[in-house]
Structure formats: C-alpha cells, structure tokens
Design goal:
296 residues, Serine Threonine Protein Phosphatase 5, Tetratricopeptide repeat, mainly alpha, three-stranded antiparallel β-sheet, two-stranded antiparallel ribbon
Length: 296
C-alpha cells in the first residue's frame, strides 16, 4: 500500500525498511505498519528517487549526515530536512545549509560513480567471483549484496545471490520471500509461486507471502487457488486491507458480488484514504445505499 501511495516499487520500500530509513510502529506476522511520520519520511525518500538520485547515493549522504550529527540516529526523520531536486538541505535558523555547513549536498558526483547507464549493468562475473572479491562470508553478507544488486536492476544476479544465501544458511522464510519477489520482477511467475509457497511452509503466519502468492495465482489463471490463498491470509490477519482489496476484486470479476461486497466494505473500513478507495466505492455503486455510506 505504501509503495502504491508513493509510486515506488515494493522492493524500494522494503529496502528502506531493512535499512531502517523508515521504521514501522508495529509488525503483524512480518507485515510492517507505518504511521504518518514514517509515511512523511518515505515521501522525502521518494522525492529524491523521483529527482534521479539512486538508492546508493541517498544512503551515502544520509550516512554523512549521521557522521556529522552523531546524536541523531535518523536524520531524514528527526531533522527539518528540505528536498530540492537531488539536494538534501538542513533547515536552521539562518536558512538552508548543507549539513557540513559549507555547501549543499549534491548527488551528481556519487551518481557518476555508481550509475553509468540507464540500462541494467550486464553481469559478467560469476557468483563465485563475487563471493570471493567482496568477501561475502556469511549468509547475511550475501543477502545484503543481493539487495544492492536488486537496486542496480541486476535481477538475475540478485536471484543467484539469494539462492547462495539459502544454500549457505539453510531455508529461511524471509530470504525465500525476497527471492520470490525478484523472480516475480523477472517475469518468472512459476518460480516465484514456488518460492512463495516455500516461505509459507517455513512460516505459516507469513501473511504477505500468502497475499503475494494469491496475486501470482490470479495472474497465472488459477482464481480458485488465488481465492484460497487470500482467505488463508485473512485467517491469519483479518485487518490486512490489501488482501481484502485483491480478494474483493477477484470475487467481483467472477460474478460473486455478494461475497465481494463484504471485502470491499472491509477494505474501505480499513483504508478509506487508499489510492484504491475510489475503485472500491465504484464497485459498490451498484447498491446506492452502500455507495453513499462509503462516499467520501
């Protein structure tokens, strides 16, 4: 939902979460919930991405801020920070200044070091070479590097690195889920489906894996299995608005309007300001009383 709100990829939001650039107020079965302050922080990060700053550049500059202000754990969330294009400025009494006090932060130099083309970089060395060159000793190292490869859109290499992490550290629901996400982005829906299944087998409470499995099953023309996956997710966490949305949609599309209505209503109760809320109200519009009840 946050990714949709900010018009960024789900993988990007997950990276911010992993890096603790945004911090959930609570987690339910691995599903993070962010409050207004964290959404505002995410908007700032999304502004930088939209201006052309890469995730690597953003994190480097935030690390510089942290070194300059060691008592501030999360500068972009805790300070009065202004985003101006690719520049990150601190607001102080005397005006806007760069955190060092000398000049504004410019991401261009960092971009030239990490991004040489708008196209994904071709993978020309083996996974074994990467493991040796980067001294990726632990599964955690491999997972971290896989995330970097994702950011660089080297999805095949990222998938192989996640597989290497699983081979080194053994089955893990979170890594299986991350691998499924990469495989989905690569368009390999069959492989993604199997990895979502694995994540659920390792952790039956992994509601996001259940939700994403339902979406993949729907995309691959298996609506009955998709409905079962969505219902399974709601059995573990009934207050998951995205699942109510997807379940309502697939039920509606298969002429199960009465059942769909329940989930459209639940979705609007849980997420009345969602980017999908207007669609839900339109779907309920065939019953004027319901449409009026949920009309904004």
């Amino acid at each position: 939902m946050l990714a949709k709100l900010l018009d960024v990829s789900v993988a990007t939001v997950r990276r911010w979460h992993r890096r603790k650039l945004i911090v959930p107020v609570r987690e339910v079965h691995r599903l993070p919930y962010f409050d207004f302050q964290e959404v505002a922080t995410a908007r700032r990060l999304a502004q930088l991405l939209a201006a052309g700053a890469s995730p690597v550049a953003i994190e480097k500059k935030l690390a510089e801020l942290s070194r300059y202000l060691p008592d501030v754990e999360r500068p972009i969330a805790q300070l009065s920070v202004i985003i101006e294009g690719k520049q990150l400025l601190l607001r102080q009494d005397e005006g806007l200044i760069e955190p060092s006090g000398q000049m504004r932060i410019d991401f261009d130099a960092i971009e030239s070091q990490h991004v040489t083309s708008d196209e994904p970089q071709q993978q020309i060395i083996s996974i074994q070479d990467q493991l040796e060159q980067r001294e990726l000793v632990t599964p955690e190292d491999m997972i971290e590097y896989a995330g970097q490869l994702e950011d660089e859109r080297q999805l095949e290499a990222a998938a192989e690195m996640y597989r290497a992490a699983l081979a080194a550290g053994g089955p893990a629901p979170e890594v299986s889920f991350q691998l499924a996400e990469v495989l989905y982005r690569m368009g390999d829906l069959t492989a993604a489906r199997e990895r979502y299944y694995m994540a659920i087998e390792l952790d039956e409470d992994y509601v996001e894996a259940r939700a994403n499995l339902g979406c993949v099953l729907a995309e691959t023309g298996q609506p009955e299995l998709a409905i079962a996956a969505f219902r399974g997710a709601l059995q573990h966490h009934n207050d998951y608005p995205d699942v109510h949305y997807h379940l309502a949609r697939i039920l509606d599309d298969h002429d199960l309007q009465e059942d769909a209505e329940i989930h459209w209503k639940s979705f609007l109760d849980l997420a009345p300001d969602s980017p999908w809320a207007d669609e839900a109200r339109q779907r309920l519009a065939y019953e004027p009383e319901l449409a009026a009840e949920y009309d904004s």
